[in-house]
Write a structure and sequence with these properties.
CATH architecture of the largest domain: 3-Layer(aba) Sandwich
CATH topology of the largest domain: Rossmann fold
Order of helices and strands: EHEHHEHEEEHEEEHEEHEHHHEHEEE
Protein name: ABC transporter domain-containing protein
Number of helices: 11
Strand order of the largest sheet: 2-3-4-1-5-6
Keywords: ATP-binding, Nucleotide-binding
Helix content: 25-40%
Bound molecules: adenosine-5'-triphosphate
Pfam families: ABC_tran
Largest sheet: 6 strands, mixed
Structural class: alpha/beta
GO molecular function, one term: ATP hydrolysis activity
Organism: Aureicoccus marinus
Number of strands: 16
Mean pLDDT: 88
């Protein structure tokens, strides 16, 4: 048997994950025939989705023992899947962006375990950007799905051409006249706490977000970032009776979740699970005007024109089925969708996951422009500060036994 290798594969041409992985596997098996007789394990979003589906159908994902798999944070889910896979002594481990969305401690754990495995197991990383390449990688290859071809990786510099074009063009016009902001504070938390069962996740959080501020929210995996966001979007029932106000109104004072949501444009990659049907990119984008998952209303000519301008700006074909777009393209459409209705508050939760370097540069330009050209406040949740993003404020969650605390500060 050939000595196992660690490979890195960069997909070309924006394929979706489902299309990509099956074809990549076949192409690798013909390029390295010894791979055909080996057992493959997969670390990917679709593998995580399968465990989630198992849990919803059978009450048990088969992965995490003590907790519901669906209750784990995204980093905890990735770690649970990874730990299970490495225990099974795989012969070929196919991993999609294995080190993304992880905090430094989890990244170190993944690196160490993968390094130990690499002497007896093929490790195939599918990467969108070279930032997290495993340092002992033997070969870097580009994979072109259209021709089922592997070729030596062309190490393109982070191209800013696309991003520069956006900067030159500016954002598409807005659908409505700008309404002056009527809120002094969009969010005001005065000693907020969050518990799940006996466990305190967040303790004594004090946080004020005013009009036109750009916040970066960070913290290790499981520190409570998504939970904090769910209290702001009205999705967490534990918000009732807590000491905080949203858009000038005390939480739990008779406001509906839909009223809260009408002030917020929100994108988190988990939402993509709801967009698996046959809608095209234009329909998905337009649904942002109505806060609906599908498009059930007839958009105005103006809305249609603006949505087309957005897709043109992002260089995304409007008639393509949304689910056939690459992860990166889907995320860009969803970011624009969240912004389309001109919300006072725009929340982007790990939006750069799955973007290639060119798309990251585009995204950074886009978000900076969204902040500059509107009155919106932004909350950007991330594990890695993106080079070029210009937050004005930071909030960091710091884990403690009794629940995470928050440090807030102004960026100099
Ligand atoms: N519904 C729930 N029931 C019980 N525990 C939960 C629930 N939702 C989240 N948790 C737990 O709360 C903690 C915080 O989760 P959260 O998703 O907010 O973290 P996070 O900071 O967003 O993490 P990541 O960076 O991994 O996405 C985690 O330990 C998670 O397991």
């Amino acid at each position: 048997m050939n000595q196992p290798k660690t490979l890195a594969i960069y997909p070309l041409g924006n394929p979706s994950e489902a299309e990509l992985l099956d074809e990549l596997k076949k192409t690798l098996q013909s390029a390295y025939p010894s791979l055909s007789s080996l057992g493959w394990s997969e670390f990917s979003e679709r593998a995580i989705d399968r465990f989630l589906l198992n849990e919803s159908r059978h009450g048990n994902s088969g992965l995490s023992q003590n907790k519901h798999f669906s209750h784990l944070s995204s980093g905890e889910k990735r770690r649970a899947l990874f730990s299970q896979l490495i225990q099974e002594a795989p012969e070929v481990l196919l991993l999609v962006s294995p080190l993304e969305s992880l905090d430094p401690a989890n990244r170190a754990y993944f690196l160490e375990e993968l390094h130990k495995l690499s002497s007896q197991c093929w490790i195939i990383q599918v990467l969108h950007r070279p930032d997290f390449l495993l340092p002992w990688t033997a070969e870097e290859l580009d994979f072109d799905l259209r021709y089922r071809q592997l070729a030596p990786h062309q190490n393109k510099a982070r191209s800013t051409e696309f991003a520069n074009a956006i900067q030159a063009k500016g954002l598409p016009e807005f659908a409505e006249q700008k309404v002056p902001q009527q809120f002094d504070s969009l969010i005001e938390m005065k000693g907020l706490e969050l518990h799940y069962g006996n466990r305190c996740i967040l303790q004594d959080i004090h946080w004020r977000v005013k009009t036109h501020e750009f916040w970066e929210l960070s913290g290790p995996n499981g520190s409570g970032k998504s939970s904090l966001i769910s209290l702001i979007t009205g999705d967490n029932p534990q918000g009732y009776g807590q000491p905080y106000s949203l858009f000038g109104r005390k939480r739990g004072s008779g406001e509906s979740v839909w009223e809260i949501k009408s002030h917020i444009g929100y994108f988190t990659p988990v939402q993509l699970q709801g967009f698996g049907g046959y809608q095209n990119a234009l329909e998905v984008l337009l649904s942002g005007y109505y806060d609906s998952v599908g498009l059930y209303q007839l958009p105005s000519d103006r809305q249609l024109r603006i949505a087309r301008q957005w897709l043109d700006l992002l260089q995304i074909p409007l008639k393509n089925a949304f689910r056939n777009l690459s992860q990166g393209q889907q995320r860009l459409v969803m970011t624009a969708r969240a912004f389309l209705k001109q919300p006072p508050l725009l929340i982007l939760d790990e939006p750069t996951w799955g973007l290639d370097p060119e798309q990251v540069a585009l995204f950074v330009e886009l978000v900076n422009l969204m902040y500059k050209e509107s009155d919106a406040s932004l909350i950007y949740v991330s594990h890695h500060p993106e080079q070029g993003l210009k937050p004005t404020h930071r909030i960091q969650l710091i884990p403690h036994e009794e629940g995470s605390i928050a440090n807030t500060y102004i960026v100099e």
